[in-house]
Amino acid sequence: MIAAFLQSSLVRLIPVGMVVLALQRTVFAEIRLGGVIVQVVLALVAAAGASGGSERGAVAGFVLGSMFDLVEGTPLGSTAIAFTVAGVVSGLLALIAADPQWWLRALFVALGSAAGEAMLPTVRLFIGEDDPWPSDMVRIVVVVAAAAAVMSPVLLPVSRWCLKIRGPAWTAPAAEEPG
């Protein structure tokens, strides 16, 4: 059982998630774009889904969302549900293209982050929070999605490393015989 854990992607995902969560709580808590806090952990989950598929995105979303719940003091699993949705959505969108360009992956990360951020008030409604819907929800979702798209060139390689995803092996082109 320990050997299986040590060979899984959780060995890389949890420490990286702790660092990103620490950055979320310190640096990015002070940085506001249009009055909205940038969601770096959510963007990492969406990047994991875009680079690893819906199953790996769901695992990353559940793990990082549970870590977020433990740090924030919200009911355990409430943020994990929304983050899991973000990972699944970006992973399913990544099925559109076999090897998407960087801008298309950034779009997948943005849409996954938007889905996760839009899911948070729904989850808060189900856990019994009073008035879970912010009045400017559309602006919040748009800013979070745009910030995730901008951060995706950095977060996609980090998520590939965390999930132990290797790129396609490069092979030299066949040498042509002089004619």
Structure description:
With 179 residues, this protein is mainly alpha-helical. It has one domain (7-162): Arp2/3 complex 21 kDa subunit ARPC3. Helix content is 70%, strand content 2%. A two-stranded antiparallel sheet has the order 1-2. A hairpin with a 2-residue loop joins strand 1 and strand 2 (36-37). Helix 2 (10-30) packs antiparallel against helix 7, helix 3 (40-52) crosses helix 6 and helix 5 packs antiparallel against helix 6 (102-126). The termini are far apart.
Could you provide a short overview of the structure?
By secondary structure, the chain is an all-alpha fold. It has helices spanning 2-7, 10-30, 40-52, 54-72, 78-93, 102-126, 137-162; strands spanning 32-33, 36-37. The protein has a single domain, classed as Arp2/3 complex 21 kDa subunit ARPC3 (Orthogonal Bundle).
What's the helix-strand series?
HHEEHHHHH
Rg, please? 18 Å
Gap between N and C termini, in Å? 59 Å
Give me the number of helical elements: 7
Whole-number total of structural domains: 1
Query: DSSP strand (E) fraction?
Result: under 5%
- The average pLDDT is 91
Structural class: mainly alpha
Beta strands, count: 2
Kindly state the percentage of residues in helix.
Answer: over 70%
List keywords for this structure.
single chain; 179 residues; mainly alpha; Arp2/3 complex 21 kDa subunit ARPC3; 7 helices; globular
